[in-house]
Amino acid sequence: METIYLFFTFCLFCFFALFCCIGMYKQNVGYFERHFAQNKKRDRLFFLKSKGMLLLGIGILFLFTRLYAITDVPRGFHVDEAGMAYDAFSLAHFGVDRYQYPFPVCFNSFFGAQSVLYAYCYAFLVKLLDCWDFNLFLVRLPAVIGGLLVLISAYQLGKRITQKTRFALIFAFVVVL
Question: Which residues pair with 102 in a beta bridge?
């Protein structure tokens, strides 16, 4: 299983590298014609669209690497996932956690406390989809959504720090890895 996962990761990396090379080639074809063109605004729009396509490619790569075999790797429920799922399920349907505390601020676990934000996000998904069973995909989905928000934040942070879109894209790609 690990070799298949590594093979798919390698294929995705090669695809992304090829995508970047094709984009750079298309950007440099006709450089002098575009450079000396009268309409500079059109050139800027093409440049922004190519950066947007790269960001979209990074987002698709992120979603594929996170959603591929999300229910199989790791196998089964972890103890913390099961406890969190039960707390969120109870919150969504009955308004209490597993110890019958109504809408707690901190969840008690076996050996400490658990994240409230993750449980409430999962409870929102359970209530939104009207789910009455424990679905492993749905339990792990808030982590993917949170990771997507981290990716967008990393891109915006890289863009604000360096004032260059290229470094922001590199920063976002590093977050994907």
Answer: 96
